[in-house]
Amino acid sequence: MHWTSLSFVRAPVAASVSLWLSVLMLSIYLTCSKKFERSWQGFSLESFQYIPTDLKIKAFAYMFSYGLSAAVSLPDQAKNAMGVSLKLSLLVAFILVLAIGFGHKTWIGFFRDSSNIIMQFTSMIPLLLISIFIDSVLGVISGVARGCGW
Question: Same structural domain for residues 53 and 38?
Fold first, then answer.
């Protein structure tokens, strides 16, 4: 950004271009590499039909923490708002972590009954729980940064 003529005004354009270049390079790697010829047969509509169902598991935690981040970004009484928002966000994340951590077999049972899929989902639970906690804090902190002009 500093070495090109894009400057700070065009920083989002530079970030978008770099992300799309990553998508393009990954797509080329997937289609041209011999590693994936037996495991990936291309896109199908069936692979996309489960995306909304999977997103519903974490959508509440994201929306709640990012909604609080918008409230924190207001300048009036920002310190108090940040404390309340962070506590509420952590409380919701803690409840969600408990619900997923202790009831993950029940949750996945609503969508699949295969024991293999349940075992694979169970192996991802620690990463999912850590991600929920980090995302809840990140939403509030990003609101604080936005409100401070960072």
Answer: no
